[in-house]
Amino acid sequence: MIAIDGPAGAGKSTIAKRLADRLGFTYIDTGAMYRAVALWALRQGVNPSDMHRMEQLALAAEIELTPGRIRLNREDVTETIRTLEVSSAASKVAVIPGVRRAMVAKQREIGERASVVMEGRDIGTIVFPNADVKIFLDAQPEERVRRRYQEELLKGASIGESALAEQMQERDRRDSARADSPLTQAPDAIYLDSTALSIEEVEETILKIVRARVTNGKEIS
Ligand code: DC
Q: Tag placement on the chain: N or C end, fewer CB within 10 Å?
């Protein structure tokens, strides 16, 4: 079990996917699960901050993760959950303890069944505090905005870079300031700043850490 946490745009998804490929592990994007619940709320006209209704939705949501895809109530929503509206709503639903309880239970179930690289905000702190390897992947705010903006451009962005920066700041603030499972580095996580590193460099650095753990006699699962 490899846990990767960090703020938006730090490179978690890209790196977690590549590591999973290299190691033959399953890649689990926990942010996609919060996004799926948020999408359902937006479609149903439920306020993402409504604690009671959001907890009901989170418990009722049928979320299915298959390599590279996510399904909500049997519908493939892999692309639909990537809008800025869903990003913002996901960060709001993720504040609600009942929603987190439901998602964490699903994540633990998945992680106990298979060898996984799981990425999110609370994987090393709450979901799997005994993970074999914990990485806190970070990057300077300007660089994180730049990366996200490039992604938005590829999708035919309708937002300017400064508006995107503001949205990301607000989301990071909410993710870090919430009372339940805020984004924070686990004491035993390794901090990695990817600002000046290429994807390959980040990948190799983490692979070295993983291999060091294995040769120390500890079994990776
Ligand atoms: O990783 P992401 O940007 O797709 O995540 C979307 C939102 O979900 C993010 O703003 C915070 C929340 N999230 C969370 O609270 N805990 C996780 N383990 C993963 C994501």
A: C
The secondary structure of the chain as a DSSP string is: -EEEE--TTSSHHHHHHHHHHHHTPEEEEHHHHHHHHHHHHHHHT--TT-HHHHHHHHHH--EEEETTEEEETTEE-TTGGGSHHHHHHHHHHTT-HHHHHHHHHHHHHHHHHS-EEEEESSIIIII-TT-SEEEEEE--HHHHHHHHHHHHHHTT--S-HHHHHHHHHHHHHHHHH-SSS-S---TTPEEEE-TT--HHHHHHHHHHHHHHHHHTTPPP-
Q: Which of 121, 167, 176, 183 is the best mutation target for the ligand 1 pocket, counting ligand atoms within 8 Å of the beta carbon and taking the most?
A: 121
Residue to mutate (ligand 1; options 5, 15, 29, 30; most atoms within 8 A of CB): 30
Residue 105's domain comprises: 29-114
Please tell me the distance between residue 217's alpha carbon and the centre of ligand 1 in angstroms: 33
121 alpha carbon – ligand 1 mean position (Å):
6
Q: Is the pTM of this model over 0.90?
A: yes
CATH (domain of 101): 3.40.50.300
